What does this fold into?
Amino acid sequence: MFVREEIKLSRGLLSKLCSAWVERKQAFAIQCQFVSFRLLDMCLVVGLRVVGTKIDLRKSKIISNISSYFEQGDVSVEMIYFVILKRGNNISLEDFCKLYILLGLSEFILPTRMGLVHDGLFNIVDDLDKLGMYNWGV
It folds into this structure.
């Protein structure tokens, strides 16, 4: 289906979709049928590339300067929210954008069950010009 105009999603519709989501099937339950919705679908919807360099999320040495906003150890999505909300006025615009993108990737595109941020994402968002080279649909 091709949509030729901007779509606004109401809170009621969003609430209905959330209640129809079946995690184990990775699909929406609609009138006794399951409509799958995969990471690839999400990437295509938001305009992320689905071909390109494979994303390496393995633990590696973090060389990103935005990691300095956090103490050593695991970083959670809540910690990123805290830094953005509490220290946002004291952060450079570029670092703010990197943190915001890191938050979006960690919460919506590549979430973990514990709400932790993959170490590899720090290095990926460190160079915003290279974000378009990765395959986000894997």
